[in-house]
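Predict the structure of Carboxypeptidase.
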Amino acid sequence: MISHFMTDLVIICAFIICITAIESINEADKIASLPGQPKVSFRQYAGFISIDEKKDRAFFYYFVEADTEPASKPLVLWLNGGPGCSSVGVGAFCEHGPFKPSGNVLVKNHYSWNKGANVLYLESPAGVGFSYSVNKSFYSIGDEMTAQDNLIFLEKWFDKFPEFKTREFYITGESYGGHYVPQLANLIIQSKAKFNLKGIAIGNPLLEFNTDFNSKSEFLWSHGLISDATYELFTKACNYSQIRRQYQNGNLTPVCSLVIRQVSGEIGKFVDTYDVTLDVCLSTASMQSEVLNKLKDKPKIDVCVEDETIVYLNRKDVQKALHARLVGVNQWTVCSEYFILPLSAQIIKKIKKKNHTLKINSETVK
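Done. Here is the predicted structure for Carboxypeptidase.
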């Protein structure tokens, strides 16, 4: 009787020690509360994970547990695109994180993804957001190294949060995430990493340079933003993929320069290129007042949320709460100036050749 009791006691103590050890690993990254944050019951974590200690390179992450029953919910990694744009600033605080800045405070986002999942936002590669490299030559790395660094980050993150290692895992992203997401998934499959990867999802992805960029002309024309004549120029005289290539090489031809000026002139300054149905954030109070006086209904979408996020994440008290710091830069920015688009998308061809199949929500995607 006593031996059974002692055995049970040892098991219970070992369990408590194990749980305590797990909690102590990530306790330093736990966020007590963000400045201006409404009261919530879910836990938040943020901090740096070293990718290369010798070269002093580290990635910054922000992690929010699911609003309810986090132990039964999957883990979702979110990667913004650019390349060079912040998953924390754009993804978490502008799009689908639990909060959005509004003035000096945070307000609840009723469309937050953490209502259905535990969500991990990663600023990658080094040079994006708070992520850094003391050696700035690593700010010009390509897609292959980015995928390798992202895998290193995940391995170390799972060591810090081992309770999520067997959880259903999804990699998601948008824009240039059309490169980052499948490349990382491909590397996980190749490396046979012991993650419970279930699927990937990418929204509005950049997959193939010519096809994706050259669709811009038809999109603008079909929405009445450019004239028939300008559409002809934008498709036959100089298309958008040509303009992007020339711009990156610092050698815009007179013809392409004329076309992009014509397009920009017809679109004007008051169209949001990411959502042409939205208003834009006006720069001065007088301009805002002038427009708002003409509105009958209060706008349902805060078109200035990106501007407010920049102000919020540059506050010292916010950076302290996030366990963040600026390294080699004077301020946090939404998108880094260090990155340019590569001119091809070889990874997609590689994945097609390997014919890897991932299941997403019971549908098979190749």
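Residues 9-21, 343-347, 353-366 have pLDDT under 50 and may be disordered.
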